[in-house]
Amino acid sequence: MNIFTRLLLDLQEMSLLIARAARGLLRKPRYFPETIAQMDSIGVGSMTIIMLTGFFTGGVLTLQTYQTLASYGAVDQLGYLVGVSLIRELGPTLTALMVTGRVVSAISAELGSMVVSEQIDAMRALGTDPIRKLVTPRILALVITLPLLTLIADVIGIVGGWVVSTWLYGLPSTMFTGSVRDGIDIDDIIGGIVKPLVFAFLMGTIACYKGLQTEGGTVGVGRSTTSAVVTASIIVIIADFFLAKALQIILGTA
Amino acid sequence: MSTTEASLYPRNGQIHEGGVSDHAAESTFREVDDSHRAIPAIEFRNVTMVFDGRKVLNNLSFKVNRGETKIILGGSGCGKSTTIKLVLGLLKPDEGQILVDGEDITHYSEVDMMNVRKKIGMIFQEGALFDSLSVYENVAFKLHEQGVPEEEVETEVRRMLRFVNLEDAIDKMPSELSGGMRRRVGIARALVGDPKIVMFDEPTAGLDPPTARTICELAMKLRDLEDVSSIFVTHEMNNLEYLCSEYAVVDEAGDVVFEKEGEKLCLVNSKVLMMKDGEVIFSGTDESLRRAEDKYIQKFLRGH
To answer: What is the predicted ipTM?
Structure first.
């Protein structure tokens, strides 16, 4: 099978997986407790790394752009620059990448081990559809929590920028916060929420698909986990570009 | 039906008596009249299965009658496990038909298959317990999925764990169990809901002889006391020995004991099917298997 047919086949299988997972939402049995448990492990569990990532990204952004803005005499725009960069781009993308590293790998390793140790077959033999029981709650939990995590990253990132600008460069506190408040508009925020929704959907699907495709024992689990993380990361970055363009057209800011 | 109140005597028709008494003869006729029993529990008709261009199963046909244990023997990779996965619809055949209880399941969708799977219990090679769930939750899985009230679930789980003699392990996690215990929990889980058809996928592989014997005894109890039809996949000769020469009865004290077949009694509810490279090379009783002249069979039986 050449790469092109392989890709088409993967796409087809993933679409089928999405269709079956979506059907799990519409008909009983629904697995709300599983979804809540996944939201806890994906969302609450990722808080620390997301807060650290957000804080230091905001900080370094301020650190790097201060000199440039100062040479144009536009230091009063520092908060605007940091805020927009975070909300539009860095917040969604970095959060998605961090969550990919932490959650996509975990999902695909877990499902992969379940395939290898015949637990998925056992589940089917016991009359339960593993797609409904395992895939739907995971994708749903990601779609709900990733936008929230992104929001947290954005806020903490702005705090990081403010800390650096006031403590390191001694700028007045209100200069930074004021330019954030005046600069950010609703379009930025909409974009910042839509992106993680799409990312979460893609990441969840890739993670579950790769996990369930695992074959070849424990080595296979490693292979599918690596492949899930690599694919999800690349897809997030590619999707980011096209989403940015699409949002510009839709929101009329192009 | 609970195991404790399981029929006190071996079911009629499972054991042929040397001198047929009137009672036995009469019940044999009753058995024949029962048209439901005439339908095989499982039937394969010319099933062929291809993986990556290699024929894993080639034109496989066999029947498992009601109350019968079909022991499938064969070396690794001969298609034994594939066969039982086909019964459960975990895999689909490329050609041929598969019937469960006279129902053609060959082209059933995953949704239709869920109903068929309810009457089949499956015991996986390594137990395939859900790592994230405790022993209790593993055994209760099916009942929890069906939304059965918790008190009933607990009674049923304890009954099943008593059957495999593991009630003490109820709160343990699978990682705390030994290989044999995992296998027994797997059996308990598969038997929830008293399925009349049970699949054993190499249940004794890698176990010490006494534990393996325990597993075989469970299979014999199901066969002789619960009227379960089963496929028992194995490559270990002592399993064959136990399953084909002993039967379970309940003695006067109400305990289950195992008796050896002898001059008076001959077990007819265990049959052997031997496979090689996806094809049946032998089908019949263990006695005729031992008499078979095929070199591969002889080598398999003697180990050299």
So the answer is: 0.79
Q: CB contact, 8 Å: A121 with chain B?
A: yes
pTM above 0.90?
no
Q: Would A105 be classed as within a structural domain?
A: yes
Whether A19 is covered by a domain: the verdict is no
Answer yes or no: do B117 and A124 touch at CB < 8 A. yes
What single-letter amino acid sits at A180? V
What's the DSSP call for residue B10? P
**What is the 3 state secondary structure string of B37-70?**
HHCCCEEEEEEEEEECCEEEEEEEEEEECCCCEE
Instruction: Assess if residue B64 is contained within a domain.
Output: yes
Q: How many domains does chain A have?
A: 1
To the nearest whole angstrom, how far is the Cα of B301 from the nearest Cα of chain A? 29
Report helix angle A105-116 to A217-251, nearest 10. 140
Domain hosting residue A115, numbered range:
31-251
- B110 in contact with chain A, both atoms CB, cutoff 8 A: yes
What is the residue-level pLDDT of chain A in tens, covering all 254 positions? 788 998 899 999 999 999 988 887 887 777 888 999 999 999 999 999 999 999 999 999 999 999 999 899 888 889 999 999 999 999 999 999 999 999 999 999 999 999 999 999 999 998 888 999 999 999 999 999 999 999 999 999 999 999 999 999 888 888 889 999 888 888 888 888 999 999 999 999 999 999 999 998 889 999 999 999 999 999 999 999 999 999 889 887 65
CA distance B30 to B282: 31
Structural domain boundaries, residue B20: 15-119+195-302
Q: Where are the alpha helices (DSSP H) in chain B?
A: 22-33, 35-38, 80-87, 110-117, 135-145, 150-163, 179-191, 209-225, 237-245, 286-291, 295-302
Say which residues have a Cβ less than 8 Å from residue B136's Cβ, sequence separation at least 6.
B154, B157, B170, B171
Q: What is the CATH number of the domain that holds B199?
A: 3.40.50.300
Taking the CA of residue B64 and the nearest CA in chain A, the distance in Å comes to 19
Residue A169 DSSP one-character state: S
Residue with tokens 């917040």: A91
Q: Write out the two tokens for B124.
A: 């996986």
Residue B200 lies in a domain: yes
Distance CA A76, CA B150 (A): 64
Alpha-carbon distance B174 to nearest alpha carbon in chain A (angstroms): 12
How many structural domains comprise chain B?
1
